[in-house]
């Protein structure tokens, strides 16, 4: 039945799983990256705002789903202003942690209170300046909710020895996804805190199993050496201990991609845009492989591999996603500027506070 | 006349309209499921990418997406459209090669000349108060973790301070400094803090054979203060850190730290050589034979057994520094 429909409407398919496709190439992006880098350094960072627009436009134009691509509309001047504010804030923070006493504490509190608001405005900027099929995305959110998910919950999770961390994480993602909209259609988020606890527990047990296995492996040989009294053997024990710590560190490093993959899959498999659903099928083995080979490549080429590394990871992440439309994708409606302003999205004076090049 | 097939999105709904694009007398015409005309000057053409469709955006954000890239590019050429200089550079092999070469040259020149020069200018023009405010908490921190109160007799401390006060700095404008005596867990050590304090450990005082040797160590530290090395290092390492993060930060924060540390070491060694020259000049200005300074370094070298120097930062090889002092004699 689906196939019949697709045959009748070849150019504009609907109601059929639509995989995300990324067509960026490392070679092509290398040109953009190196020119961006040169101009950013020569202009002492000022060009970096234009660089960000060029880079993002390239990534968005090369991301396609259901036969159409994305577009980015960020204004470089707004990005530049936001960067200046963010830089001042970082400087303030740096000075504050060097100082001590009441002024430092005051500055830290000021930075802590400013950050959630800045993140919120950045999200609004990012989404409002992204579009698909000519319809802009948007982000609503209220000040109260922003401070809850970016300040209160992280604080609570810290105070409870991170027992609340999965809950705080779930609330953060729920906020980010359910406040996002595509035109007038809202995203919704259905992953419960319980699911986050399951994911965290799974990663914790994988970690623990690894630590126990490594400890048993090293513990046996270390114990045998420990009973020997001569200094050469003591040196070997020390070397063994360093090796043990190194293996534990590498294990932690490998665990990050596993954790990210689990969470990413969880989040997108429980996100909906109106009636349309998503599927995310990232494999942690592949992510670990890409991450490790990327680091090796960047080190061996003294940084010249960076743009290729970026494209590789982006391609895998994007192409792991599939859009599962419930019906035709032709029926989304845009939100006018006036409507956006009425819901608290003052889009005219948005700034981007992100510092990445 | 070229007709380019493509999709039109009106910016109000997500519906795709199948259209054809033609250009006549400076006006673009869309025909098909939608008809629309617009002057070329009001349209915005997206930058080219090998695998992405190019877009033609109208003033109201409605856009046309070309489905035939070759036909669209031919049409652009016919209308006399030219990509911006930056785009042409990004897309030509020669432009990219130039980009790589120029970036390497700019980074190398910046690292070797521009950054040290700029850091020096910034450090000299900042009021001394700023530097002192930054270093205010350092001594308290060290006192809590590494240093203990000095056990040297007060008379000996006073004598060292008085002796150093009598010495003439090699250049006018030497900053005021305070000599602070401490005992330490990290052995013979002397270092200057941005606050203008020079910390001298009991272990170092005991290691030296005479006061003149101690004076040469103090002169070296005064050199760091006078030349504003601490502020300069702060500016330099922040700038190096920022550029390295730009280059490597995307991939891994840990990887980004390695070149930062390596690149910063050269600045540290340069500062040590500067301070040695300052101490040599100060010894000469006060008629103290340089053999005392060389002996002081020999003592430290012997104590350390050729391993790391007992200062807070990285230093040039001691043998090289001693040879430099002997040559200046």
Notable characteristics:
heterodimer; A: 357 residues; alpha+beta; B: 329 residues; seven-stranded antiparallel beta sheet; four-stranded mixed beta sheet; 12 helices; 11 strands
Give a description of the structure.
The complex is a heterodimer of chains A (357) and B (329). The model of chain A is unreliable at 1-14 (pLDDT under 50). In chain A, strand 7 and strand 8 form a beta hairpin. Helix content of chain A is 64%, strand content 11%. By secondary structure, chain A is α+β, with helices and mostly antiparallel strands. Chain A has helices at residues 2-8, 26-42, 48-61, 76-98, 102-128, 143-159, 165-178, 193-226, 231-269, 284-300, 306-319, 337-342, and strands spanning 18-19, 21-22, 63-65, 68-72, 130-132, 135-139, 180-182, 185-189, 271-273, 276-280, 321-324. Chain A has an 11-stranded antiparallel beta sheet with strand order 1-11-10-9-8-7-6-5-4-3-2. In chain A, helix 5 (102-128) crosses helix 6 and helix 10 (284-300) runs antiparallel to helix 11 (306-319). Chain B has 329 residues and is an alpha+beta fold. Chain B contains 12 helices and 11 strands. Chain B has helices at 69-78, 85-91, 93-125, 128-134, 138-145, 154-166, 202-207, 211-226, 229-248, 253-285, 290-304, 318-328; strands at residues 4-9, 17-24, 27-32, 36-39, 44-45, 55-57, 63-66, 147-149, 178-184, 190-192, 197-201. A 7-stranded antiparallel beta sheet of chain B has the order 4-3-2-1-7-6-5. A 4-stranded mixed beta sheet of chain B has the order 8-9-11-10. In chain B, strand 3 and strand 4 form a beta hairpin. Chain B is elongated and about 100 Å long. Chain B starts with a strand and ends with a helix. The model of chain B is unreliable at 306-313 (pLDDT under 50). Classes of the chains: A alpha+beta (357), B alpha+beta (329). At the A-B interface, helix 2, helix 3, strand 4, helix 10 and helix 11 of A face helix 2, helix 3 and helix 9 of B.
